[in-house]
């Protein structure tokens, strides 16, 4: 969290009709950052539950199809069993097979008939066995379908609660922003830009980003898609095409390149192979904050493209504009393009000039 800066003017604000003690510009910036991080963490939890809910809905659909097929098979089996029962009743006799053989006018024919009777009996037994097994399968599938539906309803309820949590946190941001005057907001934004510039200078001076590396074909496609989204608004839970949150942009960009990646920044960090900052190539994903609550697409030359936060638009920023956790690579097994084959995407005018802060509100 940002330390207080000596000499920074202090201001008094009011949030939700409650007076808040005077705080410095740095203190207000720290509070805004805390609220934004909490909002982004809640948004990513909402996204993760949504992804899990989609998987659960697909499981319910599969089980429903299997259960319907099992019930059709069971219905057919019961029809066959009923037919066998009627046939058995009509052909019932009190004579034993031995007596029928002795009384037959043609013993050979009687033996043949006995063979047929045995085959019919075996078929009857198999039909009964299939019927019994079908009933067990249908009962088991019905139980699984009920449990799967219960899980789906539970996930839906959890997602609704998370949605309400995100909205509550966004209201907290909006209330704080509304309580701060334009002049003070300008000082907050200037302080944030100054700190980001300092972090970027230190990162570049460390040599961590030395060297130019071309992307893979997929990385170039993902980056090209992301560039075409510049200027579109941030919206929590959005994955395009009209608006994005941070991981909605990165997951959709790589999906456009033909590579499925997890929907959330935490899962992207947890499941994709890590890559040192010194080996970054365009298209890699840079993950931020200890909780992995923000993610961006690496553009090259120490720049990233991302959906920063509510109130802002998809834009290009210095890689160190937020505290870096690390980087991951969606396609580690692919070979990079030859340098001569790669032309960095052309950025529209003002791609770097848009606000990172989002302090203008939603």
What does this entry look like structurally?
The protein has 362 residues and is an alpha+beta fold. The chain has seven helices and eight strands; from the N terminus they run ββαααααααββββββ. It has helices spanning 25-90, 97-103, 107-178, 182-205, 217-228, 246-256, 265-271; strands spanning 10-15, 18-24, 274-275, 285-288, 294-300, 303-306, 315-318, 324-328. It has a six-stranded antiparallel sheet with strand order 3-8-4-5-6-7. Strands 1-2 form a two-stranded antiparallel sheet. The chain starts with 9 loop residues before the first strand and ends in a 34-residue tail after the last strand.
Shape: globular
Low-confidence stretches: 1-21
Oligomer: single chain
- CATH architectural group of the largest domain: Orthogonal Bundle
Reading the helices and strands in chain order gives EEHHHHHHHEEEEEE
Strand order of the largest sheet: 3-8-4-5-6-7
CATH class of the largest domain: Mainly Alpha
Strand content: 5-15%
What number of domains? Answer: 2
How large is the radius of gyration?
Answer: 33 Å
Mean pLDDT: 82
Query: In whole angstroms, how far apart are the ends?
Result: 24 Å
List keywords for this structure.
single chain, 362 residues, alpha+beta, Helix Hairpins, endopeptidase fold (from Nostoc punctiforme), 6-stranded antiparallel sheet, 55% helix, 11% strand, globular, disordered N terminus
In short:
With 362 residues, this protein is α+β, with helices and mostly antiparallel strands. The protein has helices at residues 25-90, 97-103, 107-178, 182-205, 217-228, 246-256, 265-271; strands spanning 10-15, 18-24, 274-275, 285-288, 294-300, 303-306, 315-318, 324-328.
């Amino acid at each position: 969290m940002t330390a207080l800066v000596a000499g920074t003017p202090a201001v008094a604000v009011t949030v939700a009709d409650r007076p808040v003690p005077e705080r410095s510009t740095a203190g207000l910036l720290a509070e805004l950052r805390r609220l934004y991080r909490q909002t982004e963490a809640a948004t990513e939890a909402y996204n993760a539950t949504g992804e899990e809910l989609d998987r659960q809905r697909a499981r319910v659909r599969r089980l429903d199809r299997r259960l319907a097929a099992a019930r059709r098979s069971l219905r057919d089996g019961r029809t066959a069993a009923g037919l066998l029962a009627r046939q058995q009743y009509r052909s019932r006799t009190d004579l034993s097979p031995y007596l029928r053989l002795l009384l037959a006018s043609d013993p050979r024919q009687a033996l043949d008939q006995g063979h047929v009777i045995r085959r019919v009996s075996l078929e009857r037994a198999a039909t009964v066995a299939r019927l019994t097994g079908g009933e067990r399968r249908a009962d088991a599938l019905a139980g699984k379908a009920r449990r799967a539906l219960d899980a789906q309803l539970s996930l839906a309820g959890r997602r609704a609660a998370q949605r309400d949590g995100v909205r509550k946190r966004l209201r907290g941001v909006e209330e704080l922003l509304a309580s701060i005057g334009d002049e003070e907001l300008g000082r907050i934004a200037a302080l944030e830009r100054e700190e980001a510039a300092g972090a970027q200078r230190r990162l570049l001076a460390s040599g961590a980003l030395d060297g130019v590396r071309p992307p893979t074909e997929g990385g170039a496609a993902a980056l090209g898609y992301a560039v075409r989204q510049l200027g579109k608004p941030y919206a929590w839970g959005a994955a395009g095409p009209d608006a994005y949150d941070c991981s909605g942009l990165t997951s959709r960009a790589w999906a456009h390149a033909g590579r499925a990646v997890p929907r959330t920044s935490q899962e992207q960090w947890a499941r994709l192979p890590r890559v040192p900052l010194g080996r970054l190539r365009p298209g890699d994903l840079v993950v931020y904050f200890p909780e992995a609550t923000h993610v961006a697409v690496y553009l090259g030359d120490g720049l990233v493209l991302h959906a920063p936060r509510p109130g802002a638009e998809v834009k290009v920023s210095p890689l160190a504009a937020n505290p870096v956790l690390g980087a991951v690579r969606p396609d580690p097994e692919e070979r990079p393009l030859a340098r001569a084959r790669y032309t960095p995407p052309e950025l529209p005018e003002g791609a770097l000039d848009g606000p990172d802060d989002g302090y203008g509100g939603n």
